[in-house]
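Morning, I've got a small favour to ask if you have a moment. It would help a lot if you went through both lines with me. Thanks so much in advance, here it is.

***
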Amino acid sequence: MREIKFRAWNVKYKEMWDVNGLSWVIDKHYDEPERDVSSMIQSITSGNRASENPANNVILMQYTSLSDKNGTDIYDGDIVEYIDGEFSFKAVIKWAGWNWYMEGIDVNDNFNFEDTLPQEIEVIGNIYENPELVK
C-alpha cells in the first residue's frame, strides 16, 4: 500500500513545510477538473505552526511513494539526477494525472519515473528552494 503524505512550499515565508494535517473545503465547484486542489485547502499544519486559508500562501506537493538512492523521499517538484552508467540527466518530478514522470531539464525528453530504480536517482533539490537548477 502506498503512503499518502504531503509537504508544502510556504510562498509567504519561502520555506518548506512537512505537512502534519490538512483541512479541506469542498464547495459546489469541486467537480471542475481544472480547479487547483490547493484552492480547496482550508488550513495546513506543520509541527506547531498552522496556515489558515493557505490557497494563496502555499503550494502543496505529494509524495511519490518512492525514495532515492540515499533514502530521501521523492515529492512532486523535486529535482533529481538520474545516473545509469555513462547516461545521466537532471529532471523535475511531475504528476501527469495518472502517473509520475521525470521532465528532463538538460535533455529534451520525459521519462517514466515509476519504472526507474531508486539506486539510479538522487534528489538534488526542488523547484522552489533551488530554482537555479532548472535554468
